[in-house]
Amino acid sequence: MSLHDVWQLAFDFLPKKPVCVQPVDENLSTDTGLLVFRQWDEQQRLSKGFAEQLNDSRCDPDHSMLEMVRSRVFGILAGYEDQNDHDALRSDAIFKLLADRLRTVILCR
User: Do residues 85 and 75 lie in contact, with contact meaning Cβ atoms separated by under 8 Å?
Assistant: First the structure.
């Protein structure tokens, strides 16, 4: 039995897009620990409830208020307090997944 077999986890916060986390030899992201907080946030509906309280008067926005709230909250949790950090994080696969903006996910085998 290898370590890869032991540490495989699955999250269900995206029911149509299963996400599996397992250790690999490459450094893909240092922020995968946030997936646990995203799972908890989905169960408690904290970011969703907060986003529903905000008024969004933009015309034809690129991102929903929920996506922006989640990006900001999880960025702060990860230690990216400055808003300018999100310029780089917007292309990070983990942060796209956390904000529910990742359109393609590699499925578990």
Answer: yes
- Does 22 reside within a domain? no
pLDDT digits (tens, 9 = 90+) for 37-93: 999 998 999 999 999 999 988 888 888 899 899 989 999 999 988 878 878 888 888
DSSP class of residue 67?
H
**Residue 97: closest CA among 26, 18, 43:** 18
Question: 3-class DSSP state for residue 77?
Answer: helix
Is residue 72 a part of any domain in this protein? Answer: yes
Q: Is residue 40 part of a domain?
A: yes
Contacts by residues 3-11 (CB-CB < 8 Å, ≥ 24 positions apart): 8/108, 10/108, 11/35, 11/38, 11/39
**Cβ(89)–Cβ(71) under 8 Å?**
yes
Let me know if residue 75 belongs to a domain: yes
